[in-house]
Write a structure and sequence with these properties.
Elements (H helix, E strand, L loop, with lengths): L1 H17 L6 E10 L8 E8 L2 E6 L6 E6 L4 E4 L1 E3 L7 H4 L4 H4 L3 E6 L10 H9 L13 H11 L4 E4 L1 E2 H9 L8 H16 L4 E5 L10 H13 L3 E5 L7 H15 L3 E3 L13 H13 L4 E5 L4 E5 L13 H8 L2 H11 L9 H5 L4 E5 L13 H8 L3 H12 L4 E5 L3 H8 L4 E3 L20 H16 L5 H8 L1 H7 L15 E4 L20 E6 L2 E5 L2 E2 L31
Parallel strand pairs: 1-4, 1-5, 6-7, 7-8, 9-10, 10-11, 11-12, 12-13, 13-17
Antiparallel strand pairs: 1-2, 2-3, 5-18, 14-16, 15-16, 18-19, 19-20, 20-21
Length: about 575
């Protein structure tokens, strides 16, 4: 038996020594053109992944992998970061985020003005009642609980969020046009601190909409101060993108100066033909602040039209108290007459996007009321003419009939300005849309083409075709730059030790196909997307994997060096 055992042991040794070595990697992307996110020149090579991390970037990787993706003739880059995602509800419905996954997006950053937490019982009831095509139970209270809810359900992409300043405001003040007392402001600041310690990226505002518009500069600076001392930054849909664009940029810069926090402008634009020539002054203001040492950046979407609601066509005073109070006031003849008069002013005291776009440039894309859904795809001018009323009256009637703000597309910007902005070195990109798919409840409404094409347009239309920037620079602004601005740990670059968020695409063919007339068309040219080391997209199609995780900011108390500090100056930026 001893001889047999020894013989068996010898045989086993021979078999083992003659067997192939175990795979060195879980996934190998080989023979691609590597754009590492730094903006430097690309090079031919491999990216090797073990677990959720990149372990090798360079020429031919030593060893073998369990799975190999051949990237010959294709670009290999870090995953793209959507700095302004509205996938808050869509990921509950469909965790794939398919319209953005097919563009290479691996991180969705939410929180423009409002966030999915924290919520009071009253806020939960209001939000549940106001839900549209996508309906869901609100099974969380804090912002972190919401993000963990997404991760537990399964999402293809990573998720992160700013805490919305309007959400903080409603927690303490409700939806009315009131200023906080010192005690109430202290409570609001404490809510921001708790969200930052839970991993929020910072605090976000959206200052053309009620109730965020009711916040004055001092209030916002106080909240941004808390975000800054917790390692986060201030990000804003500024108070005006049109007639008072420069003044609004000045306010953001001042908030950054007072708080010590970096600041970013959401979807920078000069809205309205009469304001297109303000872009030079806007850029000059930002670059002057940067020259003084302030960290001021911006993001954008790559289209000449924006998309929001008809609330952006009416004064904010009429919207105080929430959508139900707003609609109640619009039903009062005297109030309606006052609103109509203000809507028709050339230089109104509010951000009137319908005035800038015109009724012909206001496209109706989303209704809550099934009886109004046949109007989807028509302009406000067409509906007004069919009803025999003015465009302003039609807008008011549609809000009342729909019980919502009604989602619209406003044509506002010049193509030359959009193209010029894409090349600004401090510009990142955000879709200002939800990740969706042309199926199920997403077919009940239309959308803006940016939901399906925003990121690949940077690569195709503006880098390759218009040559506004090199492909290496485009990749940097889609990945490493926003990762750096957010203070993300070990994301945004193809670098050993970093999380394996990787995109494989064909620079020669990557293309958007979504149009305003037919927006729900997927982009093409992105073949593979890796999220935390797992293939979420393979050969252009979503896999069954849902590897997305919550990505947390620097103030998260789960980090060894996390938590808030005395001031923003205690952080390295």
């Amino acid at each position: 038996m001893r001889r047999l055992f020894a013989t068996a042991g010898l045989a086993l040794t021979v078999v083992m020594s003659g067997a192939a070595a175990p795979p060195a990697y879980d996934l190998l992307i080989d023979d691609g053109e590597i754009y590492d996110g730094s903006g430097g020149a690309p090079f031919k090579g491999d990216v090797a992944i073990a677990g959720d991390r990149i372990v090798y970037v360079g020429p031919k990787a030593p060893g073998v992998a369990r799975v190999t993706v051949n990237a010959a003739g294709k670009a290999v880059s870090p995953g793209f970061i959507n700095m302004l995602s509205w996938s808050t509800e869509s990921l509950i419905q469909d965790g794939r985020g398919l319209s953005e996954l097919k563009q290479g997006v691996t991180l969705e950053v939410m929180g423009e003005g409002t966030s999915m937490g924290p919520l009071t019982p009253r806020m939960k009831a209001d939000e549940t009642r106001r839900q549209g095509d996508i309906r869901y139970p609100i099974a969380w209270t804090t912002l972190d609980e919401y993000l963990r809810h997404l991760e537990a359900r399964g999402v293809s992409q990573n998720v992160a969020s700013f805490v919305g300043a309007a959400t903080v405001r409603v927690n303490v003040l409700g939806e009315g046009d009131v200023d906080p007392t010192p005690e109430q402001l202290a409570a609001m600041r404490a809510i921001v601190v708790k969200a930052m310690e839970d991993g929020a990226m910072g605090v976000g505002t959206s200052l053309i909409y009620a109730p965020g518009n009711y916040a004055e500069t001092d209030e916002i600076a106080a909240l941004a101060t808390e975000a800054g001392r917790c390692g986060g930054f201030y990000i804003s849909h500024i108070r005006s993108e049109g007639d008072r664009l420069i003044e609004a940029i000045d306010e953001l810069i001042e908030i950054s100066r007072r708080s010590g926090a970096p600041a970013e402008i959401y979807h920078l634009k000069a809205a309205g033909r009469g304001n297109w020539d303000k872009l030079d002054a806007a850029i000059a203001r930002i670059e002057a602040a940067r020259a003084r040492g302030q960290r001021i950046t911006a993001d954008m979407y790559t289209y000449t039209a924006g998309s929001t609601g008809l609330d952006a066509a009416m004064p904010t005073w009429v919207q105080a108290g929430g959508v139900e109070a707003w609609i109640g006031r619009l039903k009062d003849p005297a109030t309606r007459a006052k609103v109509l008069a203000e809507m028709r002013q050339d230089k109104a005291g509010f951000e009137n996007l319908m005035r800038h776009a015109g009724a012909e440039g206001t496209l109706l894309v989303g209704f809550k009321n099934p009886r109004l859904k046949p109007l989807t795809g028509k302009t406000l001018a067409e509906v007004a003419k069919a009803r025999g009323v003015s465009p302003e009256d039609a807008a008011i009637d549609l809000v009342i009939e729909d019980g919502s703000r009604v989602q619209v597309v406003y044509f506002l910007m010049s193509e030359e300005n959009v193209a010029r902005q894409t090349a600004l070195p401090w510009m990142s990109f955000g879709s200002d849309a939800e990740g969706q798919a042309p199926e199920g409840p997403f077919l009940l409404s239309s959308t803006h083409p940016r939901a399906y094409g925003n990121f690949v347009r940077v690569l195709g239309k503006y880098a390759r075709d218009a040559q506004r920037m090199s492909l290496a620079e485009a990749v940097r602004k889609l990945s490493a730059q926003p990762a750096h601005n957010l203070g993300l740990r070990e994301r945004g670059l193809l670098k050993p030790g970093f999380f394996a968020d990787v995109v494989v695409f064909d620079p020669a063919t990557v293309q958007d196909h979504a149009t305003y007339e037919a927006p729900q068309q997927f982009a093409t040219g992105v073949s593979h997307v890796v999220v935390n080391g797992q293939l979420a997209l393979a050969d252009g199609e979503a896999t069954s994997a849902r590897p997305g995780r919550v990505v947390r900011g620097r103030g998260w108390t789960g980090w060894p060096d996390g938590g808030c500090r005395a001031s923003a100056s205690d952080w390295s930026w």
